[in-house]
Amino acid sequence: MSAGTALPGAPVDNARLARLFRMDSVWEQWVDTFIGTRTRHLARDLDTGEQYCSLADLATTAARHAITAANISPADIELIVMGTSTPDMLMPATVNIVADRIGINRVPTYQLQSGCSGAVQALEVAHHFLQTGAYRTALVLGGDTTAKHFDVDLDVTSMPPAQLVNLILFGDAAGAVVLGTSPDHGRAVIRRVVTRLTGLGREPGQSLEWYGLADRDSDRPPASENYKMIEESVPPMAVETLHMLLDDLGWKETDLDYLLPPQLSGRMTPRIVEALGVPSAEEVSCVTETGNTGNALPFFQIERALAEMAPGDRALGIAVESSKWIQAGYVFEAL
User: Fold this and answer.
1) What is the pLDDT of residue 256?
2) Looking at domain 2-185, what is its CATH homologous superfamily?
3) Which residues form a coiled coil (predicted)?
4) Within 10 A of 117 (CB to CB), how many other CB atoms are there?
5) Element (DSSP H or E) covering residue 61
6) Candidate CATH numbers 3.40.47.10, 3.30.379.10, 1.10.760.10, 3.10.20.30; the one for domain 188-334
7) What global pTM score does this model have?
8) What does the pLDDT read at residue 160?
């Protein structure tokens, strides 16, 4: 396994957002204290409102980095799977735009529509295909861009918290990994991937609209989030995922060297890590600098972990999708 990532533009700090939305320093302090995310990268120019970078742009860059890190060429890729909640268009699928740009053709391509677990779901699909022996090398992509929902002229003074949080919590990014059946394809091997829908009878914690011509003037908010529900639900779901993975492998918490926890926000991550209770493992987090980049985040964590892991080190990652509640996790070991 090898990894690559991509971020658009320079980091945007909370002070810049406060100036953009004409909010005072108290608002900036509120973001620092209750959200804990210091910076994020946005694919929209905050001065002009122009979207200068698409998800396909970012995913193409990340894919090229991962392919280079794997020491292979695009022609070696036999399968592509992508996870995203914010594709550039309904059709054509973003995964196929990326494939075209990096010169890949005549291979199966899949795009999964999902929130923060989508990257792990894509990883699971690719991993299963490789285990069947049908393919030798797979490219897995994940990413999200909120640029299409980011209005620089928005009046936020009367905006309810469920909508306001989306302006400060998220960032834009993409990531990629190359998986292969040969150890020459990277520095680590996947030991286990698991995803489970657990939303039966539960209200969605997050929604993201997609307007068509018939309803684009609707007064429904484009995005909303029950952040309190997410704060209460994600830590126990993460703990359950941790033990599910360890039980499957017959491992103990002390067998882990690196922990890649869910990356909701800078404030939530320490709470989740504390609930997970794996003090022997080194935490790999990036959300305070990148913002919540959805399906890109696991790849940023994987990339950072791979740079530090020694042969034999073990890492466990967890993601939770809060729109309809999906638990996802993965374990990899350095070669």
Assistant:
1) 97
2) Thiolase/Chalcone synthase (3.40.47.10)
3) none
4) 33
5) helix 55-69
6) 3.40.47.10
7) 0.93
8) 67
**Positions in the chain short of pLDDT 50:** none
Residue 10 burial (CB count, 10 A): 10
Q: What is the pLDDT of residue 213?
A: 65
Nearest to 119 by CA among 309, 262, 266, 265: 262
Residues 6+ positions from 323 with CB-CB distance below 8 Å: 85, 115, 204, 205, 206, 207, 208
Does 2-185 match 188-334 in CATH topology? yes
Q: Identify the burial level of 295 via C-beta atoms within 10 angstroms of its C-beta, where 0-12 means exposed, 13-18 middle and 19 or more buried.
A: buried
Spell out the residues 6+ positions from residue 166 whose beta carbon is closer than 8 angstroms to its own: 146, 149, 223, 224, 225
Omega prior to 11 cis, within 30 of 0:
no
Can you give the pLDDT at residue 186?
Answer: 67
DSSP per-residue string spanning 259-320: EE---S-TTHHHHHHHHHT-TTSEE---HHHH-B-GGGHHHHHHHHHHHHPPTT-EEEEEEE
Model pLDDT, residue 287:
94
For strand 258-260 and strand 314-321, is the pairing parallel, antiparallel, or unpaired? parallel
